[in-house]
Q: What sequence folds into this?
């Protein structure tokens, strides 16, 4: 999944667009959604960003739907914890949709909880679409290039790049070790599987530590600063006008319903 995300970040139809434009567009809509906290605006943001992802960047709809399911479990558990409330059976319950009493406790779903869960659902949906637009259309190198242009601390930017790079190293090492364990029947029983997993984790920790030390030595030998190649992109006035039109529409729409 991670490798495919990186592939689309380089090969999508919006890869030629300047990364600053894509970051301002996605992060601007993300901040707008979080600040306004309005369900209609969040839903509009979701449809706008999804349209740019599917029809603009040409990301397959099936793959985009799978990505939306990834945070679904965490969102579902959060909504359940908000919807269900527990109170002593002797307490007077607030306005609620249904209740169930067991022993001395009452489990109920309050109307205020439903409104809160509904608002959270739409806000999270809009926010996720903004982040997916950014990571599916912009590579990490381009994102870090913009962060450097914004004069963020170089150490922070390099940590982002190195952490992202080590994700792929981690997956590659894990696949090799896992394949070697399967070739030696390391997963043929539950106890053997548990032993193999413990050995896998230990081997990964040792290898990551060694690779990070080697990378640190290489960087120190080059003066302690990493230099990255970046392909120059050109600003497009039409993109800026389009972003301004979308932002203006959302501001007017949000002011109308506030």
A:
């Amino acid at each position: 999944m991670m490798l495919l995300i990186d592939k689309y970040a380089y090969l999508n139809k919006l890869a030629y667009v300047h990364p600053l434009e894509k970051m301002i567009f996605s992060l601007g809509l993300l901040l707008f959604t979080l600040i306004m906290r309005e369900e209609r605006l969040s839903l509009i943001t979701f449809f706008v960003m999804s349209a740019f992802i599917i029809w603009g960047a040409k990301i397959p709809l099936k793959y985009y739907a799978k990505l939306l399911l990834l945070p679904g479990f965490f969102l579902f558990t959060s909504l359940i914890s908000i919807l269900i409330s527990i109170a002593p059976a002797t307490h007077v319950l607030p306005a609620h949709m249904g209740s169930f009493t067991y022993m001395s406790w009452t489990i109920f779903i309050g109307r205020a909880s439903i409104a809160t869960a509904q608002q959270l659902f739409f806000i999270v949906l809009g926010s996720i679409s903004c982040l997916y637009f950014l990571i599916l259309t912009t590579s990490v190198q381009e994102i870090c290039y913009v962060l450097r242009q914004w004069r963020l601390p170089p150490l922070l930017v390099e940590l982002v790049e190195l952490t992202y790079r080590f994700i792929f190293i981690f997956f590659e090492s894990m696949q090799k070790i896992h394949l070697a364990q399967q070739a030696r029947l390391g997963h043929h029983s539950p106890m053997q599987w548990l032993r193999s997993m413990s050995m896998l984790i230990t081997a990964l920790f040792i290898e990551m530590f060694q690779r990070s030390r080697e990378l640190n030595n290489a960087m120190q030998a080059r003066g302690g600063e990493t230099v990255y190649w970046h392909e120059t992109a050109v600003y497009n006035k039409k993109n800026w006008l389009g972003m301004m039109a979308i932002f203006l529409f959302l501001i007017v729409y949000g002011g109308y319903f506030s």
Summary: The mean pLDDT is 82.
